[in-house]
Amino acid sequence: MLHHVRTAFGAQRWHTDTTRMPDPLDPGRLAEISFRPWPDPPAGLVARAGAIDHRRTDRLPMDPPAHWDDVARTLRMLVSPHYVDLEVLDDSVRPRLSAVSEQAAALRRHDQMYQAEIGWWSGHSGFPEGIPTDALISDSERARVRVGRAFPSAPHSARRPDIEDRSRLVVLSTPGDSAAEWLATGEALSAILLECTVAGLVTCALTHITELPTGRTILTGFLPRPGHPQLVVRIGAAPADEPEHPPTPRRPLADTLTIDRH
Fold first, then answer.
1. Are the CB atoms for 89 and 261 separated by under 8 Å?
2. Cβ atoms within 10 A of the Cβ of 155, count?
3. pTM of the predicted protein model
4. pLDDT tens string 190-217
5. What SS3 state is found at 174?
6. How many CA atoms lie within 13 A of 180 on its CB side?
7. Distance set, CA 77 to CA 20, 82, 88, 118, 248 (Å)
8. pLDDT (tens digit, 9 = 90+) per residue, 46-93?
9. How far, in Å, CA of 206 to CA of 209, rounded?
10. 199: how many CB neighbours lie within 10 A of its CB?
């Protein structure tokens, strides 16, 4: 949300001066932003602002992303101001990461609170948050993805039947594991999702692996330097002739942004 807001205002020629976590006694106040004119915002920022309304999570199997080396270089540049590292995982670790993903689902299978929350979050229509039914995938589609959170299954479908997932997997990590670094990870994730949308790529952020200690420990072993893995992102391409995914709910702006005119 914070990165989206700063991006949207920047595209309207307002530079944002941001104080993160301004009040230790009010952890719900993530940031305070003040504004000053910005006559000439970068073209890349304007393009990312234009992608906000089109960005969707794609849980289906993906083709590999084109021009990946250039894309990865740009993504690293975008996350570096947030002091977040982006590491591209080698395809050789995919089977192990798939096993970790399945293990996370198995460990949560009998967690009644977790299952209740997933059920509340998934498969609804008309709510300002959550995942509508048409954004879920079927069991046959999930079987070709392998690295993904297990949501309630959609009605049977076999979209992209000829595609076995060949997305690139990237890990976002931080030096520590504080609330400020969680916030920075969210900002970095926003930049990645919007830039990939601009580049014509599709994305799916995954947090289920890093929610459990075992998954985080294994991911740490994939990193070239010490750090705390925060999440994994799948990045790939969708078939060119496929229609755009339908919109998914967004919370009202008033839920996340308060304007003080004094």
1. no
2. 8
3. 0.94
4. 999 999 999 999 999 999 999 999 999 9
5. strand
6. 10
7. 21, 10, 14, 34, 29
8. 999 999 999 999 999 999 999 999 999 999 999 999 999 999 999 999
9. 7
10. 18
Q: Residue 109 CA to chain centroid, in angstroms?
A: 23
Q: Where are the beta strands (DSSP E) in 43-100?
A: 85-88
Tell me if residue 7 falls in helix, strand or coil.
helix
* 246, pLDDT greater than 90: no
Spell out the residues 6+ positions from residue 231 whose beta carbon is closer than 8 angstroms to its own.
171, 172, 185, 189, 205, 206, 207, 209, 210
In single-letter form, the type of residue at position 100 comes to: V
Neighbouring CB atoms inside 10 A of 243's CB total 7
Tokens 């798939």, residue located: 98
| C-alpha span between 32 and 16 (Å, rounded) | 10
At residue 93, the 3 state secondary structure works out as helix
CA dist., res. 154 & res. 123, Å (int): 8
DSSP letter at 92 equals G
Return the percent helix, strand and coil in the chain, to nearest 5.
40, 15, 45
Angle at 244 between CA 242 and CA 248, to 5 degrees: 140
Distance (Å, whole) CA 197 – CA 168: 15
The answer to whether the CB of 70 falls within 8 A of the CB of 198 is no
CA 236 – CA 157 distance, rounded (Å): 21
The C-alpha torsion from 125 through 196 and 103 to 155, rounded to 10°, is 30
